[in-house]
Structures are given as structure tokens and as C-alpha cells.
Amino acid sequence: MTDSGLFLTFEGIDGSGKSSQARMLAERLRDLGHDVVLTREPGGSAGAEEIRRLVLEGDPDRWSAETELLLFTAARRDHLERTIEPALAAGKVVICDRFADSTRMYQGLSRGNLRGLVDQLHKLMIGREPDLTLLIDMDPQIGLNRAKGRQGTEERFEDFGIDLQQKMRAGFLALSKEFPDRFRVIDGNRDMDRVAQDVTEIVLQTL
Ligand code: TYD
User: Is-above-0.70 flag for pTM?
Assistant: First the structure.
């Protein structure tokens, strides 16, 4: 199936400000007259939001690393079928807060090296990459402090501390070199509005 929409993703460590940037970009593009779907992972469709609760609430150790990878992938498959692909087919701009690169990092690197398995499963069940990925790069300690300031019931990877945050930051930067055609790295250690300005410029070039 060919489609005419544009698929944009935001990636970065917890507390990098990517969710705010995704929201601001959606507003900006809507102001310019684009039809925008703003969505997130894990989640973004009814079924995937149910799976989100399974992976982010309750005792995180109740799933093995492999089962967790299957759950994130199942959520993504539902999100793709129900939300992302229909929107792209209708020519819309899809902005997604996290996508497969997060699985390459978190499930691929946090509990041993499962990257090979992540890639195989992605090829088998997802098979789609974004047109453009905006990596909001951020000092891990600042990110951690910000993320910890938010209270909630969800267990996130930020709870594993600074070492993992550092590993994830380095991993995301390495990923940007692995996929240089679609990745753009943006310095997130600045005022939100400055970061948003860069994001908008890059996206408008692509549009
Ligand atoms: P998110 O809601 O984006 O959290 P934040 O706004 O703090 O960045 O993501 C929740 C958590 O889910 C986050 O710690 C990263 C994790 N995650 C994975 O481990 N694998 C995945 O494939 C995705 C999409 C998210």
C-alpha cells in the first residue's frame, strides 16, 4: 500500500522534554493547516493503551525481558494497524512520541543484549520506519531530575537511575549514526522554545 502522509517520531531519554516538543509541533503544524494525528507509545490505540498498563504498571519484574519485548511489539502492531497506517493512508501527518527506536534501546539494551531479537521481531511484525526521527538529546542527570519530579503510578525506566540513563543517551546517539538518513539530533539542554524552533525548522524542510 502506498500512502502520502508523513510519519514523524520523537525519541529521547525519560525527562528529555520530547512529549512537550511533540505537542508543540502538533499545534504549530495545525496552525499551518496540516491534518495532524498526535499519538504515543506504548499506547495510541485502545488495545495498545490496555497493553501499556500491563507493561508500565505493577511489579516490573513480573515479565521476563523477552515477554516484555513481545508486549511492547504487540502494542505497536495494534497502534500501527488502528491508528498510524489509516492516518498515513489518509495523507495526514502522524507525530508519535516514541516508536521502535525506544524498543531498540530499552528492550534491546537494558536487560542484556537483546537487540538482535528486537530487530527480528520488528522486521516480522512491524516493518515500518518513520520518515523522520527527532532525537531530543539531553544531559542524563537533568533528564533524571526532571522525570523524577513527575509523580505517577507508572513504573518507568527512569526508576533504574543514572547509569541506565547514561547508557540510553549513548545508545540513542549511536542509533542516530546507524540511521543517519532519518535521524536528526537536537540539543535539548536549552530553553523549550529554542528547542521547538529547531524542531519546526527541520520538519518544515521535510514537509
Ligand atoms: P513515555 O510515556 O514516553 O515516558 P516519558 O514521557 O517519561 O518519556 O514512556 C514510558 C516508558 O516506556 C519509558 O520509560 C520508556 C518505555 N518504553 C520502552 O521501554 N519500550 C518501548 O518500546 C517504548 C515505546 C517505551
Answer: yes
Q: In the 8-state DSSP scheme, what is residue 63?
A: S
Distance of CA 157 to the CA centre of its chain: 13
Residue 146 one-letter amino acid: R
End-to-end CA distance of the chain: give it in Å, rounded: 21
- Domain locations along the chain: 6-206
Q: Which atom of ligand 1 is nearest to the CA of 110?
A: 19
Q: Give the closest residue to 84 by CA, choosing from 9, 32, 34, 29.
A: 9
Architecture of the domain whose range is 6-206: 3-Layer(aba) Sandwich (3.40)
- Rounded to the nearest 5 percent, the helix, strand and coil shares of the chain are 55, 15, 30
- pLDDT tens, 43-79? 999 999 999 999 999 887 899 999 999 999 999 999 9
Which cell numbers hold the place of 13? Answer: 531519554
Ligand 1 atom with the smallest distance to the CA of 100 is 22
Residue 83: strand pairing partners? none
